[in-house]
Amino acid sequence: MPQPSPRPDPAQPELAEPKKFDPVPTVIVGGFLLLSLMTVLYMWSGNRVQAATSAARELMGRQAHEQAVPHLLYLTQRSPRSTTWWIRLGDCYLEMDQAEVALKHYQHALRLKNDLKIDEKLAVSLHKLGRYDEALEYFIKLLNEDPDHAAANYHLGLALFQAERYQEAAERFQAVAADEKWDRRAEPYRRKLAQIVLGELNPQPQSENP
User: Fold this and answer.
1) How does residue 87 score in pLDDT terms, banded at 50, 70 and 90?
2) Distance (Å, rounded) from C-alpha 87 to C-alpha 113?
3) Domains within the chain, CATH numbers bracketed
């Protein structure tokens, strides 16, 4: 015969069944916290990029190129495919007389985008490295596009001066007179050319008295 089920003891409280774990609220809260953290990090990163951009531009404007370099390096790391920061980094190194490093950054920018208009920067870098023939190709190309190009006229004049083609050099140095920066650089060479014409740099040797 079946045994009768035991009756509940009224003295003993009934135990509630354990609640099943519901993962949905935890997932929602976790997702919200993660989204909040990502938003904060994104805003912090964006603010840092903006601060680095402003600092780099302000320092370059004050000719503080060495101080601008760390900010530009950070920007190239944050945006490695942005040619702007690679070019600006090259500009700083060029102004710091580190032409070889500058040239590498310009060439890297060209690998990212091969139609950049940076012939002048390449030419100046090559000229400073003593690679005159390569530099002249760029300067001549620039002058073919714009006969009044100040930097190209100056550096072509410099090459002609070094080749002792003084008349042609004088014409190139005179062509930069309207540009304050390059006119200032050309002025010492114009003075030297004037002295050469007057024979002050190459005086005739005096004959010895018998």
Assistant:
1) very high
2) 11
3) 36-115 (1.25.40.10), 117-201 (1.25.40.10)
Mean pLDDT for the chain? 82
Q: Which two tokens stand for residue 65?
A: 């190129």
Q: What gap in Å lies between CA 186 and CA 169, rounded to an integer?
A: 10
- The closest alpha carbon to 48, from 74, 68, 73, belongs to 74
User: Percent of the chain scored above 90 by pLDDT?
Assistant: 52
Residue partners of 147: CB distance under 8 A and separation at least 6: none
- Model confidence, pTM: 0.66
Residue 210 pLDDT: 33
Q: Is the dihedral of CA 146, 147, 150, 152 positive or negative?
A: positive
CA-CA-CA-CA torsion sign (98, 101, 103, 106): negative
In angstroms, the CA 99 to CA 93 distance is: 7
- CA dist 1 and 46 (Å) reads 80
Helices vs. strands in the chain: H and E counts, helices first: 9, 0
Measure the CA–CA gap between 184 and 45, rounded to whole angstroms: 42
Q: Are 151 and 172 in contact (CB under 8 A)?
A: no
Taking a C-beta distance cutoff of 8 angstroms, is the pair 151, 175 a contact?
no
